[in-house]
Protein backbone atom coordinates (compact mmCIF):
# COMPACT_ATOMS: atom_id res chain seq x y z
CA UNK A 1 0.00 0.00 0.00
CA UNK A 2 1.52 3.28 -1.18
CA UNK A 3 0.54 5.38 1.85
CA UNK A 4 1.07 2.78 4.56
CA UNK A 5 1.99 4.39 7.88
CA UNK A 6 1.22 7.95 6.79
CA UNK A 7 -1.27 10.35 8.34
CA UNK A 8 -3.36 12.66 6.18
CA UNK A 9 -5.78 15.52 6.78
CA UNK A 10 -8.60 15.85 4.24
CA UNK A 11 -10.57 19.09 4.48
CA UNK A 12 -14.11 19.01 3.20
CA UNK A 13 -13.83 15.26 3.67
CA UNK A 14 -17.36 14.50 4.86
CA UNK A 15 -18.95 13.97 1.45
CA UNK A 16 -18.51 14.07 -2.31
CA UNK A 17 -14.98 14.19 -3.67
CA UNK A 18 -13.58 14.66 -0.17
CA UNK A 19 -15.15 11.48 1.17
CA UNK A 20 -13.99 9.56 -1.91
CA UNK A 21 -10.46 10.78 -1.18
CA UNK A 22 -10.74 9.67 2.45
CA UNK A 23 -11.79 6.19 1.35
CA UNK A 24 -8.98 5.94 -1.19
CA UNK A 25 -6.31 7.09 1.25
CA UNK A 26 -7.50 4.60 3.86
CA UNK A 27 -7.41 1.83 1.24
CA UNK A 28 -3.81 2.86 0.51
CA UNK A 29 -2.89 2.41 4.19
CA UNK A 30 -3.16 5.97 5.52
CA UNK A 31 -4.62 7.19 8.78
CA UNK A 32 -6.98 10.08 8.04
CA UNK A 33 -8.39 13.05 9.90
CA UNK A 34 -11.58 14.30 8.25
CA UNK A 35 -12.07 18.05 8.63
CA UNK A 36 -15.43 19.53 7.71
CA UNK A 37 -17.74 22.27 8.96
CA UNK A 38 -20.74 19.91 8.67
CA UNK A 39 -20.57 17.99 11.93
CA UNK A 40 -23.49 15.69 11.15
CA UNK A 41 -22.03 14.74 7.77
CA UNK A 42 -18.60 14.26 9.31
CA UNK A 43 -19.86 11.84 11.94
CA UNK A 44 -21.92 10.03 9.30
CA UNK A 45 -18.82 9.71 7.11
CA UNK A 46 -17.01 7.90 9.91
CA UNK A 47 -19.70 5.22 9.81
CA UNK A 48 -19.11 4.60 6.10
CA UNK A 49 -15.33 4.20 6.21
CA UNK A 50 -13.96 0.87 7.40
CA UNK A 51 -10.75 1.83 9.15
CA UNK A 52 -10.36 0.03 12.49
CA UNK A 53 -10.31 3.40 14.26
CA UNK A 54 -7.73 4.92 11.95
CA UNK A 55 -10.09 7.67 10.78
CA UNK A 56 -11.21 10.55 12.97
CA UNK A 57 -13.36 13.63 12.45
CA UNK A 58 -12.89 17.21 13.62
CA UNK A 59 -15.44 19.97 12.97
CA UNK A 60 -13.45 22.70 11.23
CA UNK A 61 -14.02 26.02 9.51
CA UNK A 62 -10.89 26.27 7.38
CA UNK A 63 -11.33 30.03 6.98
CA UNK A 64 -10.71 30.48 10.73
CA UNK A 65 -7.06 30.36 11.84
CA UNK A 66 -7.90 29.03 15.32
CA UNK A 67 -9.96 26.19 13.86
CA UNK A 68 -7.06 25.26 11.59
CA UNK A 69 -4.57 25.24 14.46
CA UNK A 70 -6.94 23.08 16.51
CA UNK A 71 -7.25 20.71 13.56
CA UNK A 72 -3.50 20.26 13.33
CA UNK A 73 -3.17 19.81 17.10
CA UNK A 74 -5.95 17.22 17.24
CA UNK A 75 -4.45 15.29 14.34
CA UNK A 76 -1.06 15.17 16.02
CA UNK A 77 -2.68 14.11 19.32
CA UNK A 78 -4.58 11.34 17.55
CA UNK A 79 -1.90 10.00 15.21
CA UNK A 80 1.42 11.50 16.29
CA UNK A 81 2.34 13.22 13.03
CA UNK A 82 1.04 14.60 9.74
CA UNK A 83 2.53 13.44 6.44
CA UNK A 84 -0.11 14.56 3.95
CA UNK A 85 -2.71 17.29 3.48
CA UNK A 86 -5.56 17.48 0.97
CA UNK A 87 -7.03 20.98 0.80
CA UNK A 88 -10.40 19.95 -0.61
CA UNK A 89 -12.86 22.20 1.30
CA UNK A 90 -14.75 24.45 -1.09
CA UNK A 91 -18.03 26.28 -1.54
CA UNK A 92 -19.83 28.09 -4.36
CA UNK A 93 -22.14 31.09 -4.61
CA UNK A 94 -24.09 31.88 -7.76
CA UNK A 95 -24.79 35.53 -8.53
CA UNK A 96 -24.61 37.87 -11.48
CA UNK A 97 -21.46 39.99 -11.41
CA UNK A 98 -23.44 43.19 -11.01
CA UNK A 99 -25.47 41.74 -8.13
CA UNK A 100 -22.72 39.93 -6.20
CA UNK A 101 -22.52 40.95 -2.54
CA UNK A 102 -19.14 41.66 -0.98
CA UNK A 103 -19.91 39.33 1.93
CA UNK A 104 -20.59 36.42 -0.42
CA UNK A 105 -17.37 37.05 -2.33
CA UNK A 106 -15.43 37.13 0.94
CA UNK A 107 -17.11 33.97 2.21
CA UNK A 108 -16.19 31.88 -0.85
CA UNK A 109 -12.67 33.28 -1.02
CA UNK A 110 -12.29 32.65 2.71
CA UNK A 111 -12.98 28.93 2.39
CA UNK A 112 -11.58 28.15 -1.04
CA UNK A 113 -8.43 30.28 -1.12
CA UNK A 114 -7.69 31.58 2.38
CA UNK A 115 -8.54 28.16 3.83
CA UNK A 116 -6.03 26.52 1.49
CA UNK A 117 -3.40 29.03 2.61
CA UNK A 118 -4.09 28.63 6.34
CA UNK A 119 -4.15 24.83 6.27
CA UNK A 120 -1.13 24.69 4.00
CA UNK A 121 0.88 26.96 6.30
CA UNK A 122 -0.07 25.18 9.51
CA UNK A 123 0.60 21.68 8.18
CA UNK A 124 3.79 22.66 6.36
CA UNK A 125 5.19 24.20 9.54
CA UNK A 126 4.60 20.91 11.33
CA UNK A 127 6.16 18.98 8.44
CA UNK A 128 9.28 21.14 8.61
CA UNK A 129 9.56 20.40 12.34
CA UNK A 130 9.31 16.69 11.57
CA UNK A 131 11.99 16.94 8.88
CA UNK A 132 14.33 18.64 11.33
CA UNK A 133 13.88 15.61 13.59
CA UNK A 134 14.91 13.29 10.78
CA UNK A 135 11.50 12.29 9.38
CA UNK A 136 10.67 12.11 5.67
CA UNK A 137 9.12 15.16 3.96
CA UNK A 138 5.37 15.14 3.42
CA UNK A 139 3.18 16.15 0.50
CA UNK A 140 0.25 18.52 -0.05
CA UNK A 141 -2.51 18.40 -2.67
CA UNK A 142 -4.80 21.38 -3.26
CA UNK A 143 -8.15 21.01 -4.99
CA UNK A 144 -8.41 23.39 -7.92
CA UNK A 145 -10.75 23.09 -10.92
CA UNK A 146 -10.89 23.55 -14.68
CA UNK A 147 -12.47 26.84 -13.62
CA UNK A 148 -9.01 28.08 -12.67
CA UNK A 149 -8.76 28.63 -16.44
CA UNK A 150 -12.34 28.76 -17.65
CA UNK A 151 -14.87 31.20 -16.24
CA UNK A 152 -18.57 30.97 -15.41
CA UNK A 153 -20.37 34.30 -15.52
CA UNK A 154 -22.48 33.72 -12.40
CA UNK A 155 -19.74 31.99 -10.40
CA UNK A 156 -17.46 34.96 -9.80
CA UNK A 157 -15.85 34.11 -6.44
CA UNK A 158 -15.57 30.40 -7.24
CA UNK A 159 -13.74 30.98 -10.53
CA UNK A 160 -11.49 33.62 -8.99
CA UNK A 161 -10.72 31.44 -5.97
CA UNK A 162 -9.76 28.43 -8.08
CA UNK A 163 -7.47 30.56 -10.21
CA UNK A 164 -5.88 31.65 -6.94
CA UNK A 165 -5.56 28.04 -5.73
CA UNK A 166 -3.59 27.01 -8.81
CA UNK A 167 -1.24 29.98 -8.45
CA UNK A 168 -0.94 29.40 -4.69
CA UNK A 169 0.03 25.80 -5.45
CA UNK A 170 2.98 27.01 -7.50
CA UNK A 171 4.07 29.47 -4.80
CA UNK A 172 3.78 26.84 -2.07
CA UNK A 173 5.71 24.31 -4.15
CA UNK A 174 8.59 26.71 -4.77
CA UNK A 175 8.66 27.88 -1.15
CA UNK A 176 8.66 24.37 0.32
CA UNK A 177 10.90 22.66 -2.23
CA UNK A 178 14.02 23.34 -0.16
CA UNK A 179 12.45 21.20 2.59
CA UNK A 180 11.58 18.41 0.16
CA UNK A 181 7.84 19.01 0.64
CA UNK A 182 5.93 18.57 -2.62
CA UNK A 183 2.80 20.61 -3.42
CA UNK A 184 0.49 19.89 -6.35
CA UNK A 185 -3.14 20.44 -7.29
CA UNK A 186 -5.91 18.48 -8.96
CA UNK A 187 -8.25 20.27 -11.36
CA UNK A 188 -11.47 18.29 -11.77
CA UNK A 189 -13.85 18.80 -14.64
CA UNK A 190 -17.52 17.77 -14.33
CA UNK A 191 -17.71 15.19 -11.54
CA UNK A 192 -20.85 13.36 -10.39
CA UNK A 193 -21.26 14.85 -6.93
CA UNK A 194 -24.45 16.10 -5.27
CA UNK A 195 -23.97 19.35 -7.18
CA UNK A 196 -24.38 17.53 -10.50
CA UNK A 197 -26.76 14.76 -9.43
CA UNK A 198 -29.75 16.57 -10.95
CA UNK A 199 -28.04 16.37 -14.35
CA UNK A 200 -28.74 12.64 -14.56
CA UNK A 201 -32.47 13.39 -14.85
CA UNK A 202 -32.09 16.39 -17.17
CA UNK A 203 -31.08 15.31 -20.69
CA UNK A 204 -30.58 18.88 -21.93
CA UNK A 205 -28.25 19.79 -19.06
CA UNK A 206 -26.40 16.50 -19.34
CA UNK A 207 -25.89 16.97 -23.08
CA UNK A 208 -24.42 20.43 -22.48
CA UNK A 209 -21.80 18.88 -20.21
CA UNK A 210 -21.06 15.92 -22.46
CA UNK A 211 -20.75 18.13 -25.55
CA UNK A 212 -17.66 19.71 -23.99
CA UNK A 213 -16.22 16.45 -22.63
CA UNK A 214 -14.29 14.43 -25.24
CA UNK A 215 -14.37 11.21 -23.18
CA UNK A 216 -18.18 11.39 -23.38
CA UNK A 217 -19.08 10.89 -19.73
CA UNK A 218 -19.18 12.65 -16.38
CA UNK A 219 -16.33 11.76 -14.03
CA UNK A 220 -16.64 9.96 -10.71
CA UNK A 221 -15.34 11.18 -7.32
CA UNK A 222 -13.26 8.00 -7.08
CA UNK A 223 -11.31 9.10 -10.16
CA UNK A 224 -10.31 12.36 -8.50
CA UNK A 225 -9.39 10.39 -5.39
CA UNK A 226 -7.10 8.16 -7.45
CA UNK A 227 -5.17 11.14 -8.85
CA UNK A 228 -4.93 12.65 -5.37
CA UNK A 229 -3.54 9.43 -3.87
CA UNK A 230 -0.97 9.23 -6.67
CA UNK A 231 0.23 12.79 -6.06
CA UNK A 232 0.59 12.12 -2.33
CA UNK A 233 2.52 8.92 -2.90
CA UNK A 234 6.16 8.20 -3.66
CA UNK A 235 5.15 7.38 -7.23
CA UNK A 236 4.95 11.16 -7.77
CA UNK A 237 8.26 11.88 -6.06
CA UNK A 238 9.54 14.18 -8.82
CA UNK A 239 6.30 16.11 -9.37
CA UNK A 240 5.72 19.44 -7.65
CA UNK A 241 4.07 22.74 -8.54
CA UNK A 242 1.73 21.10 -11.03
CA UNK A 243 -2.04 21.10 -11.51
CA UNK A 244 -3.23 17.77 -12.92
CA UNK A 245 -6.51 18.18 -14.77
CA UNK A 246 -8.83 15.18 -14.47
CA UNK A 247 -11.47 16.57 -16.80
CA UNK A 248 -12.21 14.00 -19.51
CA UNK A 249 -10.28 16.10 -22.03
CA UNK A 250 -12.28 19.28 -21.53
CA UNK A 251 -9.45 21.76 -21.03
CA UNK A 252 -7.79 21.28 -24.45
CA UNK A 253 -11.15 21.35 -26.27
CA UNK A 254 -11.86 24.31 -28.56
CA UNK A 255 -15.14 23.04 -30.01
CA UNK A 256 -18.05 20.76 -29.02
CA UNK A 257 -18.17 17.03 -29.58
CA UNK A 258 -21.09 14.80 -30.61
CA UNK A 259 -23.08 13.33 -27.72
CA UNK A 260 -23.99 9.65 -27.87
CA UNK A 261 -27.68 8.99 -27.36
TrEMBL record:
Source superkingdom: Bacteria
SMART domains registered for this protein in UniProt: PKS_KR
PROSITE patterns referenced in this protein's UniProt entry, alphabetically: ADH_SHORT
Keywords: NAD, Oxidoreductase
Gene3D superfamilies attached to this UniProt entry: NAD(P)-binding Rossmann-like Domain
Domain named Ketoreductase: residues: 6-189
A GO molecular-function descriptor: oxidoreductase activity
Pfam families: adh_short_C2
NCBIfam families in the record: PRK07231.1
Family of this protein: Belongs to the short-chain dehydrogenases/reductases (SDR) family.
This protein's name: NAD(P)-dependent dehydrogenase (Short-subunit alcohol dehydrogenase family)
Organism listed in the record: Hoeflea halophila
Amino acid sequence: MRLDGRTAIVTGGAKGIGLAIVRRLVSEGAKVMIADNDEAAGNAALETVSSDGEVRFTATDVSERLDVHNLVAKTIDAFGSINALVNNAGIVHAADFLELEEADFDRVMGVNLKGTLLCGQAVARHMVEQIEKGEEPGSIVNMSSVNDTFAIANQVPYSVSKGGVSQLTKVMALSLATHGIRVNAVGPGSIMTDLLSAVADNPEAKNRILSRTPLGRIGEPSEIAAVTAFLLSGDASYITGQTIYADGGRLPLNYTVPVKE
